[in-house]
Amino acid sequence: MGLETVCVNGQRRRPFSFDTLLCPSCRGPLDMAQPAGLTVHPAVTLGEGGTPVVHLQKIGRELGVEALFAKLEFLNPTGSFKDRGSALLVSALREHGVRQVAEDSSGNAGASISAYCARAGIRAAIFAPGSAPPMKLAQIAFYGAEVVKVAGDREAVAQACLRHCRQNSVVYASHNLSPLFIEGTKGFAAEAAAQMRPPPDHALFPVGNGSLLIGAWKGYTELASTGDVQRIPRLHCVQSKACMPIAAAHRKTPWTPPPAGADTVAGGIAVRNPPRLHQVLQALDATGGDAVAVEESDIIHWQRRLSHLEGIFVEPTSAAALAGLYDLRKEGRIRPQDRVLVPLTGFGFKDRIPNP
Ligand SMILES: [Zn+2]
C-alpha cells in the first residue's frame, strides 16, 4: 500500500503492516506517518461522519455556559463515533485482501468493526468482557460477527483476543492500537472546524483509550498548520472516578486500579491501562487542556438532564463529558463566556437504561 508508520516516541518511519501494532524498539503505539497517502474517502463506507452540531441552550444555562454546542456523534451508522475509525481501518483491510479479523471491545468499537466487516465481506470475531451491555453484544452478533465472551477484566479480554490471532493467523484489528483507526477519527476535527467558526475555546471528551481526543488533536493541528483554523481548542479529558488512569497521571494524584476491574456506568471509558496514555497527556499539554475524573452519580444526572432538557438520549459514557464540564466550570478552568464543544459519542439505546 506504500503506507508508513512512525512511533509516537520517535520519528523513525517504518512500512505499515497490520501485524505491527507496537514499535519494535520501545513498544510504544504507532501513528501513520505524514503525509499518510491515504484516500480521503474510505472504500468501505456506510455514510459515517457529517454529524450535526447543535446549540445546547438549556443545559448550557444549567452548566453555566451560554455557548455550549454538541456534535452528535451517536448519529453515525452504528450509533457511535467509532465508525470514523472503522471505515478507514476496514477499507485498508479489504484493500490488503484480509479475509478474517479479530478485535477486543467492550461494545461500541466491536459493533462498529462488525458492521464494516460485514459490508466488506470480512469475517470478524469480537472478544468482549462477559459484563458488556447485552444490547451491544446483540448488535455485534446481528451483524454476523462471532461474539466471544471472556471472563475477567478488559486486559484479560485483550490477551485472549491476541492469543486467538496468533494461534489462527488472524489479523488483530485493534481499534485501540491501529494507527489507521486514529487516522479515521481526524475527520471529527475537520468537520467541527467547518461547523464552528471561530473554533470553540474548549472541547471535552470522555476518554477510555482516547482515540477521538487524539484524532481531534491531530486534525486540528494539521488545520492550524495550513492556516485553516486560527487556533486549536483546549482539549480536555473526562474520566470516571472509578477508572481514572489519565486524570490521575495528568493531575499527579495517586490512583490504584481496583483489583477486579472498574465498576462504572461509563463502560465505554473503563480502560485501566490505556496504551495511548502518554499521547493523550501530550495532547492535553500541547493544547492547554485538563483532565478531570467525575462521580458516577453525576454522570447519570447529566445523562438524564440532557434527555429532559434537550431531547438527546446518549449512553452514560457520553454524558461524562457534561459532568466534566460542570467540574471544570466549578474550578474556574472554563469561564461562562467561553465557547464549548462536546462530542456526544454513543446512542442511549446501546447501554443499560437508568430509571427515568
Ligand atoms: Zn519507538
Q: Rounded to an integer, what's the Rg over CA atoms?
A: 19 Å
- What is the CATH third-level topology name of the domain at 53-81 and 181-350? Rossmann fold
Shape: globular
Any guess at the CATH architecture of the domain at 53-81 and 181-350? 3-Layer(aba) Sandwich
What is the number of strand segments?
Answer: 13
* Helix amount: 25-40%
> What is the multimeric organization of the chains shown?
single chain
Query: Which structural class fits the helix and strand makeup?
Result: alpha/beta
Biggest beta sheet summary: 6 strands, mixed
* pLDDT < 50 stretches: none
Would you list the SSEs in sequence order as H and E? Answer: EEEEHEHEHEHEHEHHEHEHHEHHE
Report the portion of residues in β strands. 15-25%
Structure description:
With 356 residues, this protein is α/β, with parallel strands linked by helices. It has a domain at 53-81 and 181-350: Rossmann fold (3-Layer(aba) Sandwich), CATH 3.40.50.1100. Helices cover 38% and strands 16% of the residues. The chain has twelve helices and 13 strands. The strands form three sheets. Strands 4-5-13-10-11-12 form a six-stranded mixed sheet, sandwiched between helices. A four-stranded parallel sheet has the order 8-7-6-9, sandwiched between helices. A three-stranded antiparallel sheet has the order 2-1-3. Strand 7, helix 4 and strand 8 (146-150) form a beta-alpha-beta unit. Helix 2 packs parallel to helix 3 (108-120). The protein is globular, with a radius of gyration of 19 Å. The structure holds zinc ion. Zinc ion binds next to loops.
